[in-house]
Specification:
alpha/beta, 6-stranded parallel β-sheet, 6 helices, two-stranded antiparallel sheet
Amino acid sequence: MNQSATLAVVGGDVRQAYLASLLRADGHTVRTYALERRPVEGCAAVSDPRAGFADVQAVILPLPIQHGDAQLNAPLSNAPHPLTDILDAIPAGTLALAGSVPFWVHARAVQNDLRLLDYLSRDELAIRNAVPVSFGYRPVRRREQQSSPRRSDAPGAAFPF
């Protein structure tokens, strides 16, 4: 049984845009907000979060959810978005998914009667996210080490990251 849902994908980087396209390809109705620099084909870009989130089953927020001082992490947006405005636009009782959620956001979600889940708090995601990130830092060191012949046999040299 394949059920379609109406979902909102909000802010974030190219991972969020990619997620929106995968959800759309799976047959879900997807609305995007704060992804103006990376429009997703087949997804409705909304300019008013309150109207855009009105009848969605879930709002998927980025990892990390916050950038700077209480702003939505939205590098693909043309404008800053206060996180309180986003949280206040989500209807009470709606499932909200986000990553690396600070305490004050959890408190605001409780105040607004949102079902907020921090997907980075799940062990399997935290581990699977940490492994590529740890290897991702090696190329920088690897490039620095290539000029120094004494470290050419360093572990991880075969990884093309």
